[in-house]
Design a protein that fits this description.
It is a single chain. The protein has 18 helices and no strands. The chain is an all-alpha fold. 46% of the residues are buried. It holds the Pfam family Na_H_Exchanger. Keywords: Antiport, Cell membrane, Ion transport, Membrane, Sodium, Sodium transport, Transmembrane, Transmembrane helix, Transport.
Length: 417
């Protein structure tokens, strides 16, 4: 068994090597290139194992990767840093003006998408003559409905999107995880039979405590960090304060059963706006934002590579491939209906950029959070089909939608009047 240091060394070396190869040869967007290369390497190793049964390369690498708990690495490791880094660059004034849109997409959109996906998957499995409980279809809908903030923000770096539309996409992605995790928790307890005492008041309490409590916690810890930064002008200390803010806020939120993602996003928006304008000198701002940009780039690269390499560990059952083929168009259609419904509802009070519906639909990228939630399912026969469907959707949205989003933007949002 590899030590933690050896495991991290190997992962960082693989990330750097694949990043260099992608830059030199494939020239795909950085993180998509890493995912493609990781997936290609995984499939190549599986092929080698099939052709040369006496080789031990596959087994050695798979055993090493199994030492990484993907759920813990993402949900209780990378996610806090990646969300904070993304939130730092959110313009608070623009976010305020688009608050109703972001709120509708992150709540109504996620709930509607969850229901549509669950219903479609359940009907599809029934038509195929496969027993798949509707409660587990709801679990899949809840974990795949939210857009992934890490994947969305990464995709937006390589696409020229109008500012209003960019605010809608990034704001939704940053804030929909709190609602999605609550929905996932509720549907999972219903599916496992431990949610029999659930009622409307209990659900509302979960939403208020997790989402609302997380937002309040982020405001409090973010304000404390802002005041500490304002009291001095030393970039090294202020970088340390930002690190302490992220880790302490996320840990406190988990301990208090609040939404860690929402808490660090709120704290990040506060520091990135009020903190940057009133609590940092130009030199400090350059170092703090530069540091978090590097953290974002490095962790993004590692995460996307891990998604590609995870095939080595999962070894999907081929008999569930059809579930993935069913899930991909189903998720796209559900995303379209959820976006169109939200936009239509708000169109009387809010203005929308040209091409909002097609861009938001095709820009609904899923990523590591959905995979992590699917991997957290244990002790159920529904795990295998849900995992196959989740991985198929994640790969399709990141690779296909991520690589073609720029074309959709140019043809719809940026086309000549």
């Amino acid at each position: 068994m590899l030590s933690l240091f050896e495991l991290v060394a190997g992962l960082l070396t693989a990330t750097a090597t694949f990043a260099w190869l992608n830059h030199q040869f494939l020239r795909l967007p950085a993180n998509i290139g890493l995912l493609v290369m990781g997936l290609g390497a995984s499939l190549a190793l599986i092929g080698i194992e099939v052709l040369f049964t006496d080789t031990h390369i596959y087994a050695t690498l798979a055993d090493s990767l199994r030492q990484i708990d993907f759920y813990e690495a993402v949900m209780n490791g990378m996610l806090a840093f990646l969300l904070f880094a993304g939130a730092l660059h959110v313009d608070l004034d623009r976010l305020r003006r688009r608050a109703a849109v972001v709120g509708a997409l992150a709540t109504l959109g996620v709930a509607l998408s969850t229901l549509i996906i669950a219903t479609g998957l359940w009907f599809g499995t029934q038509l195929a003559g496969v027993h798949f409980a509707f409660s587990w279809a709801l679990v899949f809908g809840a974990l795949i409905a939210p857009t992934d903030p890490v994947a969305v923000l990464s995709t937006l770096r390589s696409v020229d999107v109008p500012e209003k539309l960019k605010t809608d996409m990034s704001g939704e992605a940053l804030f929909n995880d709190g609602i999605a995790v609550v929905l996932f928790t509720i549907t999972l307890q219903m599916a496992t039979g431990s949610g029999d005492d659930f009622d409307v008041s209990h659900v509302l309490r979960l939403i208020v405590v997790e989402a609302g409590g997380g937002a309040v916690l982020g405001l409090v810890t973010g304000f404390i960090a802002y005041r500490a930064m304002r009291a001095l002008d030393d970039y090294s200390i202020e970088v340390m304060i930002s690190l302490a803010l992220v880790t302490a806020t996320y840990a406190l939120a988990n301990a208090m059963h609040m939404s860690g993602p929402i808490a660090v996003v709120v704290a990040g928006v506060l520091i990135g706006n009020r903190g940057a304008s009133h609590g940092m000198s130009d030199t400090t701002k350059r170092y703090v934002f530069g540091f978090w940009t590097l953290v974002d780039d490095i962790l993004n690269a590692v995460l996307f590579l891990l998604i590609g390499l995870e095939v080595l560990v999962l070894r999907f059952d081929p008999s569930f491939a059809w579930v993935g083929l069913l899930a991909v168009p189903l998720v796209v259609v559900a995303r379209f209906l959820a976006v169109a419904g939200s936009v239509t509802l708000l169109a009387r009070w809010q203005s929308f950029a040209r091409g909002t519906i097609p861009v938001l639909t095709w820009g609904g990228v899923r990523g590591g959070i959905s995979v992590a939630l699917a991997l957290s399912l244990t002790g159920t026969d529904a795990r295998a089909p849900i995992l196959a469907a989740t991985y198929a959707v994640v790969l399709f949205t990141i690779i296909v939608q991520g690589l073609t989003l720029d074309r959709v933007v140019r043809r719809t949002a940026l086309r000549e009047s």
